[in-house]
Request: fold
Amino acid sequence: MKILMVCLGNICRSPLAHGIMEFMVKENGLDWEIDSAGTGDWHVGHAPDKRSVQVAKDRGIDISGQRAQLFDPAFFSSYDRILVMDRQNYKDVVSMAASQEEKDKVTLFLDNDIVPDPYYDSNMFIPVFELIESRCKQLIKDWA
Ligand code: 4NP
Reply:
């Protein structure tokens, strides 16, 4: 299974979802491929935000090698599931879908809730990490 994690900048939330899920996928011996992208292009080519790198590093996960990329409509055919962090990401990604089948690949990462954007509030990085970690565990239980 190929899963794409999407947020706005691809430097705070989706790199955490990408790194945490990739870590758990390895731990569980799954053959899933994980990547991430953003709907905005400001940070394309940049490493994740230092605060995301640190919160992950403190918990044994290295996301420093990731580089931000812009969501490309070609991703609809290359990924099985596209998991978005908030409702604006959902609108932005779905607006690029060319068919109902492509739209159906897109869901909120938390199903019925959003992952808050920690970019403007450094205190949010630990709770956001924990929220993403617990959802990744659940997704592995549900889909593995
Ligand atoms: P992310 O957070 O979508 O979780 O990567 C953001 C990063 C950068 C910006 C906004 C949100 N920005 O406006 O540059």
Summary: The chain is about 40% helix and 15% strand. The radius of gyration is 14 Å. The helical segments are 13-27, 50-57, 75-78, 87-94, 100-104, 125-143.
